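Quick log. Single chain, no ligands specified.
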Amino acid sequence: MKWIKAGAVVIALCCGLIVCNPAASFAADKAVADVLTAEQKQEIASLQKEALEQEKEIIQKYVEFGVFSEKKADQIIKHLDDRFAQLEKDGFVPKPHPHGRPLQPNK
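-> predicted structure:
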């Protein structure tokens, strides 16, 4: 009975290493990062910038209406700016959720 339990633990650990291999995840991210052309990146950047500005306007309206304090609005806007900077750094290709399936380029 001990050997069966030990074998089950070893199999579970091996499956965990295969499924949660960070190197495989990084390779998938790297493959997706080169999907967009320079023109496509520029178009996405423009749209993302417009969306960012609109979100900031919405946050300012919430401050005006008394829903958010100025301090809370500043925190939200900083988060939005950080998110935009990260998207820009990643070539405007969204990163997959850490617990989800990796993005795959269309072939």
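Helices lie at 2-19, 22-33, 38-64, 70-89.
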